[in-house]
Amino acid sequence: MMNEWVVFHLGVAALLFLDLAVLNRKEHVIEFKEALKWSAFWISLGLGFGFYIYLSRGIDSALEYYAAYIIEESLSVDNLMVFAVIFASFNIERKHQHRLLFWGIMGAIIMRAIMITAGTQLIQQFHFIMYIFGAILLFTGIKFLLSKGENHFDPRASKVFHLAKKFLPITDEPHNGHFFRYDPHSKHHSFTLYFIALLIVESTDVLFAIDSVPAVLAISRDTFVVYTSNIAAVMGLRALFFVLEDLIKRFHLLQPALGLVLSFVGIKMLIEKWYVIPVGVNLAIVLGILISAGILSKMLPQKTKH
Known about the structure:
two-stranded antiparallel sheet
């Protein structure tokens, strides 16, 4: 029987190839309805994979998978808000955004694999690391709760952008969706702002993974459950990005809800030595926080700024 890791990665590779090389071979603007359909498709796949976890590992592992998947998917929305700022800063046209996100997610899959493997190994060998992860999550959760929801991130002021300008030949010429541009006069290749945007997307994903990976490790120690839930959530980010604007308007209490979720999983890690919260309770609390935030967002519309 083929190893489940191999089967999972073959499935991921097939879906990514189908997406880029077949269904979206020609660059085009992803409209809201199309993005909504693709979001439903990727979310259905992610939720459906939880049934395999149930069949192969049992109900507890399946509940761990779903809790980890929901946390990662929710945190991803905050990540996508930063991607929107990056695209606006570098004037990335909507028709070119999908392909850039594709390569960004390819990088995210590789980085998540490294970070999840390292995280699980560290916890197994050095148990005190769990408390460091818990403290990081609790600190981040409190920061989310105290934040007013304003995003002051400036991609052109980031360290990545300054390092790229210092060490790479960069051109401001139109990129037309290409990472490099050849100058026939100087006979040199230069990196376009399209490539620089990708670099910053990857760097911000690393920063977000510092929160999300410990969060899912707080839910499960099974590397396969942690990894597959992370990748299943990440795979749907491209489609979710294009419903972002409408989603954020409707779900304006998402950030404090994420703050509560991160604080909860942080506390869970910190008290695990003395009390282990049942996995079903974990899932119920995470879902309860997010559903409550959704209901309150509907009942208490965001005040418009004059």
